[in-house]
Every structure is written in C-alpha cells, then in structure tokens.
C-alpha cells in the first residue's frame, strides 16, 4: 500500500512528512489485569503506543478486555501490573452510552466539564455553546437531555469530552448503539473534529469496517488473555466512507483474522 | 482520487444538512403545551367537586332517613354552621396556624436531621448496617406509639410533640435520601471522575442532583408522617398552656360529644394536608421530573 500524503495532510496537519519522535500520547507497557485469581488474566502484558495526533482503533470480540484497557488508560481502574503514561493531564473518555446528566441542559453538561477544568463562570456558557456548534448543535444548548435524539446526545457527549481540552480522547464503542445512518454521519463528524483539533484518539469498537474507516492504525485484540495480536496500518485515502472499496477489502482481511482469533476459543 | 477534494466539500456541506434532518426527525416531539384554564378546570377541579357533592348528598339522605341519631350523625347544614362559625370567630384559623407552625418547625428539624442521617448512612457502611434496619423499622411503627414515652420524658409540652413528629418524619426522610443515593447509576460517578471532579465536586454536582427524585419522595412522605404524628400528639397532649391546634380542637369535639365539631376538625386536618401536597410537594416534584423527562407532565 502507498502512503498517501493527502490523507496525512487532511488528517493531522502538524504531522506532515516526519513521524514524530517526541513523547507518545499514550504509552501502555506490560499492563496486566486480573479480576479473578482462578481465571486467565483479562489483560496479559499489553503494550500499546499512540503517537501524538494519531487515530488508533482497538478492535476485538466482546469481552476481550477493550473497556478494561480503556478504563486503565483513563485512570479509572488501577492495573494489576504494568505502567501507563499519558501525555495529557487527564485523558477525555467517551462511553458507549452518552452518559449525560439528565438534570442539566445540553450546554449545562458541557459546562460541568469546563467547571471541573477550572474555567470561570463567565466564560463557561460561551465556550460551551462554541463546542456545541463544533458538533453541529448550535441552538440546542438549552435542550434537556431527554429532548435530544440518540445521535444528538452522543454529539453532546463528544462536545463534553472536547470541553476537557485534553489532547487524548478515548472512545469506548461510542456509536455502537446508534442506527447506521446516524453512525455514518457521526463518523464524518468525528473525523473532521479529530483533524481540526489534532487529537490523539484511541477508539474501541467491535465493528471492523468502522475501525478501518476511522483509524490510521487498527489493533486486533485477542481474548483470554487479552493482548494485541496483530496490527494494520491503514493507508487508505481520506476522506473515506464505510463503503469505500479499500475499506471493504481491508475489513475483509481483518475479519478473517478476527474470526480465526475467535474460533481459537471454540476448540 | 482527483475528484476527492470536491467531494469533501460537498460532503462537509451535506453532513450538516443530513445531520440537521436527522436531528429534526429523531428528536422527541415537543410536548403539547399545558391545557388551557378551562380544560384544566374540567379535568382537574370538577371531578373531586362532583364527588364531594355526591358524598354530601348521600350524607343528607342518611340524615333524613335517620340512619343514626342526630347527635351521632348531624346534618350537613349543622356541620356547615359549626364550620362557618369557627371561621368567623377565628378559632379555625388559630388552630390551623398553631398546627401548621408546629408541623413546619417539626418538619424543618426532621429535614435537617433526616438529611444528615441519610448522608451519614450513605458514607458509612458500618452505620448503614447498624442503623439501617432500625430506621426502616421505625418507618412502619405508628409514631403515636411514642406519645406516652414522650409525655413521660417531657410532660405535656411542645418538646413532647416535636419528639413524636421527629420520630415520625426523620426515618422517611433519611430512607428516601439513602434510597435515592443507592439508585444513582455508577456511570454518573465515572463521568464525574473522568471530568476530573473532586470527591466534594462529584457529591455536589453529580451524586446529590442524581439522588434528588428519591430524596423528594422521602420528603413528601416525611411531611405526611410529620403531619399525622402531629395530629396524634396534639390529640393526646391536651393542655391549656399548649395553644390549641387542630388535634386539640378535635379533642374538644370529642369531650363535648359534639360531632359537628369533630367533623369540622377532620375536614380542616384533611384540607391542610391536601393544600400542602398540592401547593408545595406536587409542583416541586413535577418540575424535577419533567426536567429530567421522567414523566409525561
Ligand atoms: N470489575 C470486573 N470484575 C470482574 N470481571 C470483570 C470486571 N470488569 C470486566 N470483567 C471481565 O473482563 C472481561 C473483559 O471485559 P471488558 O473489558 O468489558 O470487555 P470488552 O469491552 O472488550 O467487551 C470480561 O470477561 C468481563 O467479564
Ligand atoms: Mg466494552
């Protein structure tokens, strides 16, 4: 496959040409997680490095430890062993559910993130509305959570994550509960925001096409014990969609590998 | 490949439109505006009025048919006379005010103690294990059972009355708050941690607001228990030094065997209970629940 300069330029402008030699955005070293002593570890000496501005997709069957790994990177779970370094003060994390607080408005949810970051009261409102506009939600600031559709909620959640002003964004199957049409649109939205903001993203999914469509690199996780078993560099031109022929071809290849990995457990 | 930048532009514009279309199609419809005053009257005010009129009608028939002697079953008109004169000579207002003030003070005390207790039971697993069953048990103990003890401790005094009110209301409030806190989805706490809120910040901005519906339920029940306990206490602790509350008014009716006064007192007690419910608790609860989309309004 050929490296595509256009794609790189569109994706992360500050990265043109030279792979960054500096501090990785995320470095996971030899991380293991054991929940129950008498069962194989959920994560077994996982290594993972994300370059600044890189979009990495973490792919694996249900229950292989993707969420566990993401929670460890986010600092919500202490790993049994191993180290995690994150270049950001505190990585932003988006859950599969929008996890919006229902007593707050859309803007109120974003403002809470700003408040936690220490942004002054006067600027919060304006900043929240700016972030909502960034995810195409201008005018929805005063809406209550229950008045929003699933796609809108997930965009508010994205705006709230962006409000954390972290250079590292962790996403745990954020679009898994959405219908295909909405998901397609949100893929475009996310790709745009990622390129504009120069974020480093770890995107967890069990959807192979989604991983190939979004990621610059796709990591396949095996289950029990969970570890990264293979990785693919995605050198397909941006912008791409889930229907792009290159996406389909690479997804087919990865799916074959995924199936092989899963069927290991049936034997 | 050559056409790709053009497609980008088209798609960027297109996304906005598609997204706006999806948002419009998929958002919850705005709820119909509240019905007009006329409609509200027909749907909310009229039914209980009609029902009440029917009850009075049957009562009148029973009186005419002399189901009971008239000292035991006075006519609606007799009761209305007593009711009216209690209004005109101010004794009804005095009794309502005395009881309402006691109820208010007792409820406010219960609110402070019950909230503190609920929070303490939430923070301390040990305390929850130790006091939890007793607090739950107290909820089902009729607080009138405390009246004799309270009188022995405090004599016929306001202190005795407040003791009974507190023992009635505090368990409901503490349990309501604890129940509300227990039902907070763990996901909300994780959101607070991801956003970087401190323990105090998470309590204030996530935990307490999330527990509000359960807490309000507890407050509402706490008020009902406070009011009931107060009536029980007033009915028994009759003493000239203790201003005349509704319960004491009821007791006067009993001692004089004046059924009209007894019915008048009961009607006043009921009216206060309904008024507080309709004017205080129902609006607060409705507001909280509709804001969260937990009720159809
Ligand atoms: N807190 C926990 N205690 C015990 N087992 C857990 C816990 N969290 C996750 N697991 C187990 O770890 C495995 C991986 O879970 P998870 O990371 O959620 O997988 P994924 O996100 O890939 O679907 C599952 O088998 C799950 O049952
Ligand atoms: Mg998961």
- Which topology of the domain at 95-257 in chain B does CATH recognise? MetI-like fold
Range of helix content of chain B: over 70%
Uncertain runs of chain A with pLDDT below 50, 5 residues or more? 1-20
The portion of residues forming beta strands of chain B comes to: under 5%
Structural class by sheet pairing and helices of chain B: mainly alpha
| Basic shape of chain A | globular
Number of strands of chain B: 0
Features:
heterodimer; A: 267 residues; alpha/beta; Rossmann fold; six-stranded mixed beta sheet; three-stranded antiparallel beta sheet; 9 strands; globular; B: 297 residues; mainly alpha; MetI-like fold; 80% helix; disordered N terminus; binds adenosine-5'-diphosphate; binds magnesium ion
Q: Layout of SSEs?
A:
The complex is a heterodimer of chains A (267) and B (297).
Chain A: H1 5-11, E1 26-33, E2 43-50, E3 55-59, H2 66-74, E4 81-86, E5 92-94, H3 106-116, H4 121-134, H5 150-163, E6 168-172, H6 180-197, E7 200-205, H7 208-214, E8 217-222, E9 227-233, H8 245-263
Helix pairs in contact in A: 3-4, 3-5, 4-5, 7-8
Chain B: H1 4-26, H2 37-64, H3 76-88, H4 91-123, H5 125-140, H6 147-154, H7 158-182, H8 186-195, H9 199-236, H10 246-255, H11 259-291
Helix pairs in contact in B: 3-11, 4-5, 4-7, 4-9, 4-10, 5-7, 6-7, 7-9, 8-9, 9-10, 9-11, 10-11
The structure holds adenosine-5'-diphosphate (ADP) and magnesium ion.
Adenosine-5'-diphosphate binds at residues 35, 42, 60, 62-68 of chain A.
């Amino acid at each position: 496959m050929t490296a595509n300069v256009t794609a790189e330029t569109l994706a992360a402008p500050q990265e043109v040409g030279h792979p960054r030699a500096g501090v990785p955005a995320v470095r996971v070293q030899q991380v293991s997680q054991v929940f129950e002593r008498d069962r194989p570890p959920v994560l077994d000496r996982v290594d993972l490095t994300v370059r600044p501005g890189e979009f990495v997709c973490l792919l694996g069957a249900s229950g292989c430890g993707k969420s566990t790994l993401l929670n460890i990177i986010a600092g919500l779970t202490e790993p049994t062993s191993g180290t995690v370094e994150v270049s950001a003060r505190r990585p932003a994390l988006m859950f599969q559910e929008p996890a919006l607080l229902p007593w707050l408005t859309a803007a109120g949810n974003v403002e809470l993130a700003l408040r936690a970051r220490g942004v002054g009261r006067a600027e919060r409102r304006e900043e929240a509305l700016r972030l909502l506009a960034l995810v195409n939600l201008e005018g929805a600031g005063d809406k209550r959570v229950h008045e929003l559709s699933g796609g809108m909620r997930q965009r508010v959640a994205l705006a709230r994550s962006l409000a954390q002003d972290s250079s590292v964004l962790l996403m745990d199957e954020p679009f898994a509960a959405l219908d295909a049409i909405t998901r397609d649109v949100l893929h475009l939205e996310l790709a745009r925001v990622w390129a504009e903001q120069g974020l480093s993203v770890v995107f967890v999914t069990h959807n192979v096409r989604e991983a190939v469509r979004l990621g610059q690199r796709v990591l396949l996780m095996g289950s029990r014990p969970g570890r990264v078993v293979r990785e693919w560099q995605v050198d397909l031109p941006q912008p791409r969609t889930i229907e792009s022929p290159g996406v389909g071809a690479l997804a087919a290849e990865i799916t074959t590998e995924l199936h092989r990995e899963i069927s290991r457990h049936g034997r | 490949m050559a056409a790709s930048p053009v497609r980008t532009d088209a798609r960027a514009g297109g996304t906005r439109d598609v997204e706006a279309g999806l948002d419009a199609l998929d958002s919850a419809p705005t709820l119909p505006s509240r019905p007009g005053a006329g409609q509200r009257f027909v749907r909310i005010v009229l039914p209980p009025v009609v029902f009440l009129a029917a009850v009075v009608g049957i009562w009148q028939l029973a009186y005419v048919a002399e189901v009971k002697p008239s000292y035991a079953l006075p006519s609606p008109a007799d009761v209305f006379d007593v009711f009216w004169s209690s209004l005109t000579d101010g004794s009804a207002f005095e009794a309502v005010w005395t009881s309402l003030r006691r109820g208010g003070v007792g409820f406010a005390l219960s609110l402070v103690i019950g909230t503190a207790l609920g929070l303490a039971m939430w923070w301390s697993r040990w305390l929850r294990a130790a006091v939890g069953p007793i607090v739950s048990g107290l909820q089902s103990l009729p607080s009138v059972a405390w009246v004799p003890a309270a009188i022995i401790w405090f004599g016929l005094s306001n202190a005795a009355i407040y003791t009974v009110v507190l023992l009635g209301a505090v368990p409901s409030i503490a349990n309501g708050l604890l129940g509300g806190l227990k039902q907070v989805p763990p996901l909300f706490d994780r959101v607070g941690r991801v956003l970087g809120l401190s323990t105090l910040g998470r309590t204030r901005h996530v935990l307490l607001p999330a527990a509000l519906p359960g807490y309000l339920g507890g407050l509402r029940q706490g008020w009902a228990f406070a009011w009931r306990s107060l009536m029980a206490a007033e009915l028994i602790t009759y003493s000239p030094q203790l201003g005349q509350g509704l319960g004491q008014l009821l007791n006067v009716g009993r001692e004089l065997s004046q059924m009209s006064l007894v019915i008048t007192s009961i009607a006043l007690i009921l009216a206060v209970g309904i008024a507080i419910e309709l004017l205080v608790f129902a609006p607060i609860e409705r507001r909280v629940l509709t804001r969260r989309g937990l009720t159809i309004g």
